[in-house]
Here is the input.
Amino acid sequence: MTVYLLLVLMTQYADYWTTKRVLAQGGRELNPISRTLIYRLGMTHWLIMKLGLGFVLVTATWPLIWPSAAAILITGVIAIRNYRMIR
Here is the structure.
């Protein structure tokens, strides 16, 4: 469980960091839910919420592996796409 938890939290942070960089360069958040949360809560609170939800996902669904794997895959792809935009 520890490995999955770390991977989920790392991909969530990567998404946060790359989104922050894209927004700083004048880009925009495409996910309407995230866009609203960033606007209303700010980036720091959005990060705290993302990490908290990642923790809950892994601990609440353990020993099922597929929810964590899906979160890692989806968030990792989003972070890579964001990273390509800031290069």
Summary: The CA atoms of residues 5 and 58 lie 6 Å apart. The mean pLDDT is 96. The chain has one domain: 2-86. Residues 2-86 form one domain.
